[in-house]
């Protein structure tokens, strides 16, 4: 077989069923080999979009997809999406074509040749160029293993065009089956001792508790101990938002009531929280508040991560052990924690009374989107000021239902992420929410959604500029820059890609549109938004 055929057979044997691709001349043999396989190849319109699709596929399935690009500009276009997968802890494999091996050492002196191994090294768990057919099985097996290990992320493989067409021998190598190690008993004992002595402990959840399926074990711990709990952006749904112990979402750039509760705590227990989600030292008031951290693996200490006690191992096992050890104790929620939940509910009730206001508040729009969620729907948030409103105010019905990227926080993920979600066919509704500053970054893949006949609703909050950056610069300098852009002809844009456009003027109109029975399969809904006075 050829190198390309062996490479594809190794991917298929490793469980890869989807490749998001933008082909090029140097990947011709790979595309031909994929045509003869059972792997589904999704043709995309931009490499960054392909990478975002693979990233969201990994988050929703727990298994990596592949994004494929050619050498040179095809590979460089992937970098943002690859970095997004690594910092958002999504299993992911990037594959790039490359020129013939004899050309690679010439580096920048050869047409379209750059060192792809070094290019992807800083944004992946491993970046590797394959030099021989004998390396292919082990390289693919290693990539699958690394992408799926505790604290998952992206792996990059580069296959030169001459190796792809060369006759080789080999067979797939099975990736090892790995399980998260169990935390040391002495670490559990030390954590128990520190928590037991605290008067006002608080639990802060992170992405890991959702990713590892440990939410039920977390709920048991909370029920047994009565501890208040707040979630990160990336762990929305880790705790039932209707639970009286849930006091909100932390991580907003502006001050919120949940921050007062965290500040008043005399101990912080993090569960599955990773340094890429939010600086731990900021949460602990510059290390003034002791921190007990439950993590899948031991995390490197540094400027953003310095817990007093770290319990490294299976979150499920650690939570069960901690619950048993603390079962004799029960904490009453202290006043600041109660105030945080009361203030959140008060804000949401206030916003519900403004569903017909013009222009609508961000909180009201977030509630309209939240109301549209069913048990079987999914929401992909883009990046911008709207993300902050969604993170604070939406109420997921189950863990992992709302995807909010906050590791890299790369703009442009909403539409590609919705395409990846809709392809899976497991959701009754796929919602993408983005700002008008983000939607144009991957607007070309509206065509991909139409070509695949996917059922997607994309809601664009329109404020006419890069509002988050304008707000930040105004806050820092006292003067507001003009980062506005032309008013889009949204209806014409939608029609150009075969989508249906609806414009709403209020949060009430948006909620009604999202509740419509038998809506068009691809909808672009625009709505103005006011962020003034909103916590976002």
Question: What's the topology here?
Answer:
Blueprint: H1 3-13, E1 18-21, H2 28-35, E2 40-43, H3 47-61, E3 65-69, H4 73-87, E4 92-98, H5 116-120, E5 126-129, H6 136-148, E6 154-160, H7 161-165, H8 185-197, E7 201-205, H9 207-211, H10 215-225, E8 229-231, E9 246-249, H11 257-264, E10 267-271, H12 280-283, E11 291-295, E12 309-312, H13 315-326, H14 335-352, H15 362-371, E13 377-381, H16 385-393, E14 402-404, H17 414-424, E15 429-435, H18 446-451, E16 456-462, H19 467-477, H20 490-496, E17 500-503, H21 507-514, E18 522-528
Helix pairs in contact: 1-2, 1-6, 3-4, 3-17, 8-13, 10-13, 11-14, 15-16, 15-21
Characterize the structure shown:
With 536 residues, the protein is α/β, with parallel strands linked by helices. It folds into 3 domains: 163 residues, Rossmann fold (3-Layer(aba) Sandwich); 151 residues, Rossmann fold, CATH 3.40.50; 176 residues, Rossmann fold. Helix content is 38%, strand content 17%. The strands form 3 sheets. The chain has a 6-stranded parallel β-sheet with strand order 2-1-3-4-6-5, sandwiched between helices. A 6-stranded parallel β-sheet has the order 9-8-7-10-11-12, with helices on both faces. Helix 3 packs parallel to helix 4, helix 15 crosses helix 16 and helix 15 runs parallel beside helix 21. The longest helix has 18 residues. The radius of gyration is 24 Å and the shape is globular. The chain starts with a helix and ends in an 8-residue tail after the last strand. The model has no long low-confidence stretch (mean pLDDT 93).
């Amino acid at each position: 077989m050829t190198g390309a055929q062996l490479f594809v057979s190794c991917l298929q044997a490793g469980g890869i069923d989807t490749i998001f691709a933008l082909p090029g001349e140097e990947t011709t043999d790979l595309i031909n080999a994929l045509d003869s396989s059972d792997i589904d190849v999704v043709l995309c319109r931009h490499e960054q979009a392909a990478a975002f699709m693979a990233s969201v596929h990994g988050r929703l399935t727990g298994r990596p997809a592949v994004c494929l690009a050619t050498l040179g500009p095809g590979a460089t276009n992937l970098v943002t999406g690859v970095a997004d997968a690594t910092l958002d802890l999504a299993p992911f494999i990037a594959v790039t074509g490359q020129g013939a091996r004899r050309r690679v050492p010439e580096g920048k002196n050869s047409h379209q040749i750059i060192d792809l191994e070094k290019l992807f090294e800083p944004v992946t768990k491993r970046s590797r160029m394959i030099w021989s057919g004998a390396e292919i099985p082990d390289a693919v097996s290693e990539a699958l293993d690394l992408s799926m290990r505790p604290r998952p992320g992206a792996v990059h493989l580069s296959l030169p065009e001459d190796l792809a067409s060369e006759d080789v021998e080999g067979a797939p190598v099975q990736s090892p089956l790995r399980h998260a190690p169990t935390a040391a008993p002495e670490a559990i004992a030390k954590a128990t001792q520190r928590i037991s002595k605290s008067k006002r402990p608080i639990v802060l959840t992170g992405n890991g508790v959702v990713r590892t399926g440990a939410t039920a074990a977390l709920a048991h711990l909370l029920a047994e101990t009565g501890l208040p709990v707040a979630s990160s952006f990336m762990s929305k749904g880790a705790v039932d938002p209707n639970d009286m112990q849930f006091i909100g979402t932390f991580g907003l750039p502006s001050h919120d009531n949940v921050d007062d509760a965290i500040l008043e705590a005399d101990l912080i227990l993090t569960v599955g929280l990773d340094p890429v989600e939010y600086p731990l030292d900021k949460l602990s008031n510059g290390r003034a508040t002791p921190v007990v951290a439950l993590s899948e693996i031991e995390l490197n200490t540094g400027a953003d991560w310095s817990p007093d006690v770290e319990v490294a191992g299976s979150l499920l096992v650690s939570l069960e052990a901690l619950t048993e050890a603390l079962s004799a104790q029960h904490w009453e929620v202290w006043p600041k924690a109660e105030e945080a939940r009361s203030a959140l509910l008060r804000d949401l009730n206030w916003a519900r009374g403004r569903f017909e206001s013009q222009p609508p508040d961000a909180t009201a729009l977030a509630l309209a989107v939240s109301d549209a969620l069913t048990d079987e729907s999914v929401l992909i948030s883009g990046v911008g000021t709207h993300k902050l409103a969604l993170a604070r105010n939406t109420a997921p019905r189950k863990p992992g239902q709302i995807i909010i990227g906050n590791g890299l926080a790369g703009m442009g993920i909403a539409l590609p992420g919705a395409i990846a979600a809709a392809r899976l066919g497991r959701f009754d509704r796929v919602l993408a929410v983005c700002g008008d500053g983000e939607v144009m970054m991957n607007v070309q893949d509206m065509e991909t959604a139409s070509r695949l006949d996917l059922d997607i609703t994309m809601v664009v909050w329109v404020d006419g500029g890069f509002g988050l950056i304008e707000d930040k610069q105004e806050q820092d300098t006292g003067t507001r820059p003009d980062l506005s852009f032309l008013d889009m002809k949204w209806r014409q844009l939608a029609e150009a890609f075969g989508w249906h456009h609806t414009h709403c003027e209020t949060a009430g109109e948006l909620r009604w549109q999202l509740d419509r029975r038998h809506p068009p399969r691809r909808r672009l809904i625009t709505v103005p938004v006011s962020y003034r006075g909103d916590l976002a």
